[in-house]
Amino acid sequence: MKSKEGNLVSDLWGYAPAVGHNAGNMLVGFKVEATDGSIGKIVRHSDQAGLSYIVVDTGVWIFGKDVLLPAGVVERVDASEQKVYVSRTKDEIKDAPEFDKDKHLGDPDYHQRLGAYYQQLRG
């Protein structure tokens, strides 16, 4: 999948080999840790090839907003602590395009915009 700018973003939609390709199967309910602190709990996931993601309920941290994170931002999973560590800061996640539970199911442009946002954060 390529963004309109032509940057490859498809690697963001799969779990890193160290995390495992079926990681999402066990993650619902796990806490999510950004690089600078906790952001919420996983409420949904997808392990679809080329379109894997987690949805995080941020609770009161971002006024109860859910955020969709591409699986490629997951750095590691600590099953014993039931925590998922992601490679983005709280502000980067807060500033991401808003999660739209209807658009994400059938709108490839939505995934391209979201992927392009996280891709540009790689620096």
**What is the CATH C level class, in words?**
Mainly Beta
Number of strands: 6
From the spread of the alpha carbons, the general shape counts as globular
Quaternary state reads single chain
Q: Supply the number of structural domains.
A: 1
Keyword list:
alpha+beta, 18% helix, SH3 type barrels, 6 strands, globular, 123 residues, disordered N terminus, 6-stranded mixed beta sheet
What's the layout of helices and strands?
Blueprint: E1 31-34, E2 37-46, E3 53-57, E4 66-70, E5 74-78, E6 83-86, H1 90-94, H2 103-106, H3 108-120
Parallel strand pairs: 1-6
Antiparallel strand pairs: 1-2, 2-3, 3-4, 5-6
Folded structure, characterized:
- The protein has a single domain, classed as PRC-barrel domain (SH3 type barrels, Roll), CATH 2.30.30.
- A 6-stranded mixed β-sheet has the order 4-3-2-1-6-5.
- With 123 residues, the protein is of the alpha+beta class.
- Helices cover 18% and strands 27% of the residues.
- The chain is globular and about 35 Å long.
- It has 3 helices and 6 strands, in the order ββββββααα.
- The model is unreliable at 1-9 (pLDDT under 50).
